[in-house]
Write a structure and sequence with these properties.
Length: about 350
């Protein structure tokens, strides 16, 4: 609190990210980072970019990176918008498309940053409930809205909507923007980028933080038809016209181009997911099928809070949400390396038995 704050600052409810412990030997399964390192090609591109040219501003168009994304997604460079993490891209999308007379819609259980952006920009919202099995029901998203946003797969549940369901939603919702937040799509889902040519109101947002192991570089992007991208560019250029620095752009472009490493990494994460899911199931956990790099799990005999605390005592960090009520007994467990996942299973065996 300070009397120097602008008035709206008092009412903000900022996002609280998962813990990033300083020293110590933690097994960190709490923020959905990739357990495998970034592409070696990304690292050498960053090392090469760290030179005299850093005295110059970066390319305001981030052409190198956007070309790499366009190649990966099979779209035009002009249909790609780059940002400093997908959180920034999402924030710009809320500002650009969601300040509407009607409330926007997103699930009651979802990425908690959406509420924060609504608070920041004064956007009204409604939150249709997930069903009992935590699935998104798109029939609860009537066309009369100021916009729609959801992650696919959803966070923190990991549950995936098939592309056909998203197409149906788009077919009956043509008057407001639909943002599909695909932070985890590379772990087994089918991207809605394929629908961009058909729907002028669709914006697909992705990040290099998860499937490309570059959370520390802060790079995300959006794909959409030109008028939506132009809207985002107008916000960006009224805020910070150089979101990607030279190092980030070089590393991100190289990471997008390294198809082989990407394929290996995502495969390894998906294999670990199915292995861990089997082990958790054997320990009595209820684990909805996840298409992400994390599992969402609860045990019938132990509260989420007590499990998270017992794991912390064994130097293992997982994420636990005390709100909303419905998910308070779940743990969100990021897939680690095979070794880390084995350590988690041994710890849980000792705790639940
Ligand atoms: C991790 C995550 C993001 C943010 O990613 P950054 O690119 O690191 O900002 C966005 N949406 C969802 C659903 C996420 O889980």
């Amino acid at each position: 609190m300070s009397r120097y704050w602008s008035k709206p600052v008092h009412d903000l409810e900022p996002y609280v990210p998962g813990e990033q412990p300083g020293g110590g030997d933690w097994i960190k399964l709490n923020t959905n980072e990739n357990p495998f390192g970034p592409s070696p090609r990304a690292l050498s591109a960053i090392a090469e970019a760290a030179g005299d040219s850093l005295r110059l501003y970066p390319d305001p168009g981030n052409t190198l990176f956007r070309q790499a994304v366009a190649g990966h997604c099979d779209v035009e460079v002009e249909q790609v918008f780059a940002g400093n993490g997908s959180d920034e891209v999402l924030a710009h999308a809320f500002m650009a498309f969601f300040r509407q007379p009607r409330p926007i819609l997103f699930p009651d259980i979802t990425y908690s940053f959406y509420r924060v952006y609504c608070g920041l920009y004064g956007i009204e919202y409604r939150t249709p409930e997930l069903d009992e099995s935590l699935r998104l029901r798109l029939e609860d998203y009537p066309a009369d809205n100021g916009g729609i946003i959801f992650p696919n797969p959803n966070a923190p549940t990991g549950l995936l909507l098939p592309l056909e369901a998203i197409r149906e939603l788009l077919e009956r919702n043509r008057d407001s923007v639909v943002v599909v937040d695909e932070a985890y799509i590379d772990f087994g889902g089918e991207s809605a980028v394929a629908l961009v040519p058909e729907f002028e109101n669709l914006l697909v947002v992705q990040t290099l933080s998860k499937s490309r192991s570059l959370a520390g570089l802060r790079v995300g992007f959006a794909v959409g038809q030109r008028p939506l991208i132009e809207g985002l560019e107008r916000i960006r250029d009224s805020f910070n016209s150089y979101p990607l620095d030279r190092l980030a752009e070089a590393g991100a472009a190289a990471a997008m181009a390294d198809r082989e490493y990407f394929a290996q990494c995502r495969q390894a994460v998906m294999e670990q997911r199915e292995w861990l899911r089997g082990r958790l199931d054997a320990l009595g956990f209820e684990v909805p099928p996840s298409a992400a790099n994390f599992l969402f799990a609860r045990h019938p005999d132990h509260s989420g809070e007590s499990l998270a605390e017992a794991l912390r005592e064994k130097a293992i960090l997982v994420r636990h949400f005390s709100r909303p009520e419905r998910i308070r007994d779940f743990l969100r467990i990021t897939l680690g390396t095979p070794e880390q996942n084995r350590a988690l299973v041994s710890a849980l065996e000792a705790i639940v038995k």
